[in-house]
Amino acid sequence: MLNTTGTRDSNDTFYAKSLMTPQDVPMTEEAMGAMMEYLGTTGFESDTFWHVEIELYGGVDSAINNVPLNSTAFAHRNTLLTFQPYASSSNALPPYPEEAFGFVDGIVTSVTSNMPDDWNYGTYPNYIDDRLQDWQRLYYGEHYPRLEKLKAVLDPSDVFQFPTAIEEPDTYA
């Protein structure tokens, strides 16, 4: 049985990631079912403290979607839902268990592997995931080349550097 009643200290050792689903191509029943199946099997077997936050971004009269796409760096104005899977180590202390990375990644994969190959999902840029492959596209979409140019002008010394920081133009493949 999944225990969600425990209290947590202010300390935590966790891994989180995100999935932003496009409003114009909603998740299929198969994708939703696969995620629920994954959580109901693998989730119950996990010895981590985990949860999945689900936020409604889009829909009729969404303030997020009312801002024109190219007005800001935020590339996911067409998002309907944002998921943030999160798992803590069993005692909230380091080290984070290696197998728990796969558990959290599996939550997202259970959805994305049950959607069309060209499904244009994204990830929320403020939920930093330094293990994320193709983060340039997933965080910033078509805005990334413009952000690279801004980085070159505004931060030529590369002061703002972290694993998923905007890179100088042509530094990634």
What does this structure look like?
The protein is α+β, with helices and mostly antiparallel strands and 173 residues long. It has a single domain (14-141), classed as Vanillyl-alcohol Oxidase, Chain A, domain 3. Helix content is 31%, strand content 14%. It contains 5 helices and 4 strands. The protein has helices at residues 29-45, 63-66, 98-112, 135-140, 144-154, and strands at residues 14-16, 19-22, 49-56, 79-88. Strands 1, 2, 3 and 4 form a 4-stranded antiparallel β-sheet that branches. The termini are far apart. The model has no long low-confidence stretch (mean pLDDT 91).
Number of domains: 1
Helix content: 25-40%
Q: Give a count of the beta strands, DSSP E runs of length 2 or more.
A: 4
CATH class: Alpha Beta
Question: How confident overall, as mean pLDDT?
Answer: 91
Helix-strand makeup class: alpha+beta
What shape does the CA trace take? globular
| Order of secondary-structure elements | EEHEHEHHH
Helical stretch tally: 5
Radius of gyration: 18 Å
Major sheet attributes: 4 strands, antiparallel
% residues in beta strands: 5-15%
CATH architecture classification: 3-Layer(aba) Sandwich
Unreliably modeled segments:
none
- Cα-to-Cα separation, first versus last residue: 45 Å
CATH topology: Vanillyl-alcohol Oxidase, Chain A, domain 3
Seen as an oligomer or otherwise, the chain set is: single chain
